[in-house]
């Protein structure tokens, strides 16, 4: 029997959060953590969590499993369970709405700050803006982000300053547009980042790299942004 | 753009560069002092060492680097843990008081260093 401990909090009925223990017979199968939650929800329908695609594409079920952030749908028990125990908590650092559901507002407002869309003030060509395969290759490892927030909520700098530090997810997207040959507002983008918080609160501890379910490297992207800022200012 | 009036250089890039350059100077200075100490010193050789102008300049540079380095580093720590978001207005008051204390301490160290280096 797998011992599962789940963070529970219903602001309408609970004074404070608590951990609820469950036992689950997995039949010896190496199922995903999301499957565990689904089976427990069949026992106790009040357990709340977000989920959608169940295959690591939508980014809805970012959770903290045995102390490490990840997507429950693509995390097999064998990758996280030790001593037959599984502790599931909401993503750290964001306000809890209920049980494992967090308020992603601060995460999204940081994402919004980096203007995550292509900006080009030159006249639009008849068909499309062309990009060489080499320039397109620069976006690999940047565009794949699904905004699950596993990285930003594993980052202590984001925990302490979620209102001022953009965080690894936002900065990865920031660099995705700074690196895009079709984007023409690079200078304006950099000007908005040249303060002691937005980018420079990153101290390079790479928690983000450690947890990214898509295998991306926000720390490297942040390093590129920092080099662009230093080159621009010196 | 987040504003930060109490940071060392008012800009992220300026602070970042100052932190790296001052770190390198401090490393060089401590390696130098460590080498001198390990080679064995007595009062006379220590006094002769610091009688040279380049050692005085190097030492002053190291202390100024220490002041800048400590200001940037402790400012980062304070703005992580003592903030309005975490503690309400108390956070701001506490942080400003501590920053002033840190500033005074570093200023005293700099003046004291000048006195030591050129006073004997």
TrEMBL record, chain B:
Binding site for a ubiquinone: 81
Purpose: Membrane-anchoring subunit of succinate dehydrogenase (SDH).
Organism: Sediminihaliea albiluteola
Recorded coiled-coil stretches: none
Membrane-topology annotation of the record: Multi-pass membrane protein
Annotated compartments: Cell inner membrane
Keywords: Cell inner membrane, Cell membrane, Electron transport, Heme, Iron, Membrane, Metal-binding, Transmembrane, Transmembrane helix, Transport, Tricarboxylic acid cycle
Name of the gene: sdhD
Record note on cofactor: The heme is bound between the two transmembrane subunits.
Protein name per the record: Succinate dehydrogenase hydrophobic membrane anchor subunit
């Amino acid at each position: 029997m797998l011992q599962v401990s789940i963070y529970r909090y219903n602001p309408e009925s609970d004074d404070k959060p608590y951990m609820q223990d469950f036992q689950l017979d997995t039949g010896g199968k190496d199922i995903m953590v999301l499957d565990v939650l689904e089976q427990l929800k069949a026992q106790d329908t009040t357990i709340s969590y977000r989920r959608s695609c169940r295959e690591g594409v939508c980014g809805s079920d970012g959770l903290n499993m045995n102390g490490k952030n990840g997507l429950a749908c693509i995390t097999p028990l064998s990758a996280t369970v030790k001593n037959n125990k599984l502790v599931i908590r909401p993503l750290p650092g964001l306000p809890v709405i209920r049980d494992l559901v967090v308020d992603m507002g601060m995460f999204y407002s940081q994402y919004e700050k980096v203007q995550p869309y292509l900006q080009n003030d030159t006249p639009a060509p008849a068909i499309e803006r062309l990009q060489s395969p080499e320039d397109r290759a620069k976006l690999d490892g940047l565009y794949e982000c699904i905004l699950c927030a596993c990285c930003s909520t594993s980052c202590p700098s984001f925990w302490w300053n979620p209102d001022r530090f953009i965080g690894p997810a936002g900065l990865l997207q920031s660099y995705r547009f700074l690196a895009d040959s079709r984007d023409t507002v690079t200078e304006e983008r950099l000007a908005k980042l040249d303060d002691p918080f937005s980018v420079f609160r990153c101290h390079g501890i790479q928690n983000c790299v450690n947890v990214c379910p898509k295998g991306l490297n926000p720390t490297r992207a942040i390093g590129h942004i920092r080099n662009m800022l230093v080159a621009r200012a010196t | 753009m987040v504003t930060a009036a109490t940071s060392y250089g008012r800009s992220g890039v300026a602070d970042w560069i100052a932190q790296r350059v001052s770190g390198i100077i401090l490393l060089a200075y401590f390696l130098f002092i460590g080498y001198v100490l390990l080679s064995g010193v007595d009062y006379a050789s220590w006094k002769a060492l610091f009688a040279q102008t380049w050692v005085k300049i190097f030492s002053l540079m190291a202390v100024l680097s220490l002041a800048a380095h400590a200001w940037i580093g402790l400012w980062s720590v304070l703005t992580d843990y003592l903030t309005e978001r975490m503690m309400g207005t108390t956070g701001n008051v506490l942080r400003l008081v501590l920053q002033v204390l840190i500033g005074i301490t570093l200023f005293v160290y700099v003046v004291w260093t000048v006195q030591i280096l050129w006073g004997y």
